[in-house]
Amino acid sequence: MSTPAPDALTVENIDITYRVRGRDLTTVRDVSFRIGRGESYGLVGESGSGKSTIALAVVRYLARNGRVSQGKIEIDGRDVLAMRGEQLRKLRADTVSMVYQEPGRALNPTIKVGRQVAEVFEIDGVSKEQALERAQGMLEKVRISDPAGVMNRYPHQLSGGMLQRVVIAMALAAEPSLLILDEPTTALDATVEAEVLDLVSALRSEFSTSLLFISHNLAVIAKMCDRVGVLYAGELMETGPAREVFDDPRNPYTVGLLRCIPRRGTAKNRETLDTIPGFPPGPGDAVNGCVFAERCGLVEDRCRSGEVPLYEMNPTRRSRCHFYERAQTLPRIVKAEPEPAANGTAPREVLVSAEDVSKTFHMEGETIHGLVDVSLEVRAGETLGLVGESGSGKTTLARVLLGLTPPDQGAMLAIEGAPLAATADHRTHEQQKTLQIVFQNPDSALNRRHSIRRLLSRALSKLGGYRGDALATRLRSLLSEVRLAERYLPMRPAQLSGGLKQRVAIARAFAGDPKIVVCDEPTSALDVSVQAAILNLLNDLQRREHVSYLFISHDLGVVRYLSDRIAVLYLGRLMETGSADQVFEAPHHPYTEALLSAVPTLENGSGRDRIRLEGEIPSAANPPTGCVFHTRCPRFLGDICVNTEPPLAESEPGHAIRCHIPLEELRHLQAKEVPVGGAGE
Amino acid sequence: MSVTTVPIESAAALSAGRKTVRREMLRELVRSPLFIVGALILLWWIVCAVFGSSIAPQNPDAQNLFAINKAPSSAHIFGTDQLGRDIFSRVLTGSRDLLIVAPLATLLGTILGTAVGLVMGYFRGIVDDVLGRFVEAFLALPVVVTAIIASYGLGRSNLELIIVIGLLFTPLIARTVRAAVLLERELDYVSAAQLRGESSFYIMFVEILPNVLAPITVEFTVRLGYAVFAVATLSFLGLGIQPPSSDWGLEVATNYGQVAAGFWWEVVFDALAIASLVVAVNLISDAVEGVLER
After folding, report:
1. Which residues contact A306 (CB under 8 A, 6 or more apart)?
2. Which residue in the set A436, A448, A492 is minimally distant from B195, CB to CB?
3. Strands (DSSP E) along chain B, which ranges?
């Protein structure tokens, strides 16, 4: 009690154990960290590393079969594990708040937003009218547009970004000393994520709240946190100031993880991504020695027995590795130089072309323009990246090409010069083989009742026309192409990890030797180390089979890495197309500029001027006049943007931009501000 | 080499193979007290249906005009009816027709309902609208009243009973299956099958059907309970199982006039038997639902 101000949160040597079918499974082992007043601490790790479990333990929300079996948790110097009933309720009401990944599920759908926020004040004993008043004040603080209007709306009437603001307003309403954010922006678009992160930073200083920030996204953690702890299989592998840990990692796991992420500006023909071999140990597996030993390139005998201590390198940095000094010498699994593309730079012929594709949806009396006059082509052996916020029409365009969603009259689709029917069942067998897809979520894409053997055999017989022995031979070669062991064949999808499932889905897409494969966010459901392996696999397959990809992703780093050319969509319209370099480097469309500056990066002082997109994506049922982007455009000119839609004009060879501002002026505008942003760092 | 592991979130499904999942479900079912009680009662009546005439202490059809309307005693523990037949023996043998008609009718309804539901949920649009109107119209018909009318048109054998009840259950089951199929159809594996050029029949019955078996199983057990009740009701009305069967519903119908004369035992034991069977089936269906729909 004599210490001046106790830490906002102290976690000391905790173990967390779940009891599953009579067995105790320890999922978190010997984790310690502290968060000082006003400090922001990040926990980063892949799925299953125990990040969320720790957060739940801190507020005593563990499932009934889970408990903190060892150690101590203190908030504001008070022992959380000893609290009971009313004390716990008061702790959760006054001292700690939590913000979860899905804002839509954190709010009651049947109660108006205003009432829900006001409730937090009412618990504090404030009168109804006053509570409502203060709720509105809180909504103003989280900079929601039209707070008075939002008060009277129901959660389903708000967008994801607005909902997350409401949840943050509720969390901060009680002025907690500790705010726990569990993947608060994972479900949001990059542009919205940037806004929410800015908001959290601003409010943190305003309320002098301490943060426990949980994310799988290293760049977000780097941006938001003072200090960071890297979790792996329930153990802290490395801790220290966030910048230092990411710039100068001292644990082989951190080193490996960082090598899995495409760095800004890298592309598949310049550099390969490294991967981490193997799989993390499961919660019940007995591990002797280091939990990472099985997958570590620096492993020696002493790693496999006895506990590895969390070595203290200096007062702020710790690493759980005997060899922390040479952690960065971790050998690469994949060699750094990419193999040269087989077809080199030879001009590629057009494989698939789409002209004047529009898609109008009619829903409940509303007309929604999903796609408006989109024309693009994919050439043989290339990757066309498709980017844009959610609702921009990326997936609709892919479905139109595949024949799953028929376009409006007037669209012209062609493959290898031959016209392509609007729906898949009217296309020739040859065309069906040619166009395949890898979906985002393998759990949805693979029939959970069918074995892997059945899934792949059916695709081979139906698309490839294989029978009998030929099928068995081809099945084996297909498996080895996607690097799947044959022992998985009798299993069902649920028995495989996410990465393995996605390999099965890729194998299925390649069963008929396709010429173009649509990849719809194929790695967004995966951890970064698995993502790197899948991206490398897609690359290898492309090199060997000369397949083209239409690659859809919200992760601009990944798109940049994989794509030869990129198309940017906004409200169903193409805003920009060009080579990856043309689109990603200035001069580019102001929308592309905004998208890029919204993405947090791991690189220090990336020097980009931060452009923020204000407000929400307008409704596709009621798009803005003139240039559809004018309502949010950071380079808004004036009346011409409101009244006239600019054409998609080819401003330099292979590079088309839909903007009234001439290319030269964009070059000037976008170049000018880089040093300003850089100086600010 | 390395071991495949699943994330902690699914620790409960730890290395759970498909066989182990099924075995796990079965084990859970067998452990459920609801299921045990229901299954024991059902098993008892099945044994009676198969071996009834050999278990029964007396010939259930043997009349004894010297011992009519006798109250329960050591000679006739459930008493005798107006023809002097031993009621205990008649109750024991009375489950046979019911246990043939009710499950078969439910099975027929489930098969037809599943097919209709798959078609409605898969094709949606106009197919769903048209079939949906028929389903709604059918749903509006009271089962018993319709069955009464149908029995005049079709006749009154067990086969007709099975067909009538099966058809009346079809829309109910179709509605449940349709709802499940609508959810399933949104999943990407259906799109993947379409892109492979699979026929609609293949997609409905090979891709989607295995994934909606759980709600169908639950629906089957629920409907079975209703079927037992419906058959008993129709028999009571004289439109179901026909004499000389010792069917419970029929027995209640022939004897209920006797209650006024004070011969309550001639109705009560048959009624209790019907109730026990309905309760048993409902217990089983609750337990199955609890295990499957989680």
Report:
1. A288, A289
2. A436
3. none
With CA atoms as reference, report the closest residue to B12 among A284, A496, A18, A20: A20
Q: Provide the residue type at B34 as one letter.
A: L
Give how many domains chain A has, as a whole number.
Answer: 4
Using a CB–CB cut-off of 8 Å, the residues of B that contact A are 1-9, 11-18, 187-189, 191-192, 194-198, 207, 210-211
Q: Is residue A170 part of a domain?
A: no
Q: State the angle between helix axes of B158-185 and B143-154 in degrees (0 to 180), rounded to the nearest 10.
A: 130
| Alpha carbon distance A666, A588 (integer Å) | 7
User: ipTM of this model?
Assistant: 0.82
- Tell me, yes or no, whether A473 and A618 share the same domain: no
A322 & A356 share domain:
no
Check CB contact under 8 Å for B4 and A439: no
Peptide bond into A600 cis (omega under 30): no
Q: Which of A47, A404, A446 sits opposite B194 (nearest CB)?
A: A404
Please report whether residue A119 resides in a domain: no
C-alpha to C-alpha distance for A280 and A295, rounded to whole angstroms = 8
Strand extents, DSSP E, A145-207:
178-182
Q: List chain A residues with CB under 8 Å of B197.
A: 424-425, 429, 432, 462-463
For residues A565 and A473, state if they share a domain.
yes
Q: Which residues pair with A79 in a beta bridge?
A: A74
The mean pLDDT value for A100-115 works out to 87
Walk me through the domains of chain B, giving residue ranges and CATH numbers. 45-53+118-292 (1.10.3720.10)
Q: Hey, is A645 helix, strand or coil? A: coil
A578 within a domain of the structure (yes/no): no
Q: Report pTM.
A: 0.84
Residue A297 lies in a domain: yes
Enclosing domain of residue A206:
9-104+176-246
Tell me the pLDDT tens digit for each residue of A335-370.
777 776 655 555 678 899 999 999 998 877 788 888
Same domain, A413 and A509: yes
In this complex, do B17 and A27 lie within 8 Å of one another by their Cβ atoms?
no
pLDDT tens digits, one per residue of A215-261: 988 989 998 999 999 999 889 999 999 999 999 999 999 999 998 98
Query: A402 to chain B, minimum CA–CA distance in Å?
Result: 7
Tokens 């080499």 sit on residue: B1
